Amino acid sequence: MAAEKKAQAKGEQAEGKIKKVTGGAVGNESLKAEGRAEKSKGDLRAAKEKAKDAVRPK
To answer: What would the pLDDT profile of 6-26 be if each residue is shown by its tens digit?
Structure first.
């Protein structure tokens, strides 16, 4: 389950970055903002999974 969530976070980060770059290239501020938000969502999900891994006993 954790690997699935980590992969989802990476996907969100990548998709957000693509939208942000594309929005900047074509001058679409809405798409650029959506990309920033999606990348942030992915960053938060990745941080949450990393914190859960740190707390889990090994």
So the answer is: 999 999 999 999 999 999 999
